[in-house]
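On clarity, I found the account of how folds are encoded harder to follow than it need be. What matters is that the chain and its backbone geometry are given together, residue for residue. The format is easy to grasp once an entry is in front of the reader. For illustration, here is how one protein appears when written out as sequence plus structure tokens.
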Amino acid sequence: MLEVNAPVGNIFLDEGFDELKKGNFERLKLSRMELEKRILRRKGDRGTDIGLKLDPGVKLRHGDVINNGDMKIVVEQLPEKVISIRLKTKNMVDVMVLLGHIIGNRHRPISIQREEISFPIQADAEKEVFTKLFQSIINDIEMRVEEQVFSPSTGADVHEH
């Protein structure tokens, strides 16, 4: 079993992993919740038994590289359902404040990318719930459900219910 205390880098953020970008590597596929854990045991997609016993303060992220001797293993976060929202008109401060207030009251982590805010959901049916919650601003926003690798914005890390 391969025991891992910390990643050796990240395929997306660090140089020196050009060979890995060609795709010839084993993958350790984990959910966002599993990435939060310090101790975990899983198998890679090629059968390598991997035991995570991460050093204090170390968290795995999408794209982290684990060293297995000559072979490297890349951590891949599994996509999850999210609601993505975009304002139909820019600079609508009242709509932005209400949007933040409603999502915040549901204790959802958020991701802000360009002019879009996203947050994870468990099922497509939650779109109906949020449509009702956003009733007063529904004509001012575009909302869709999609699957993506969700990474909360730093500083917007909240506990989920």
Observations:
- The two ends are 34 Å apart (CA to CA).
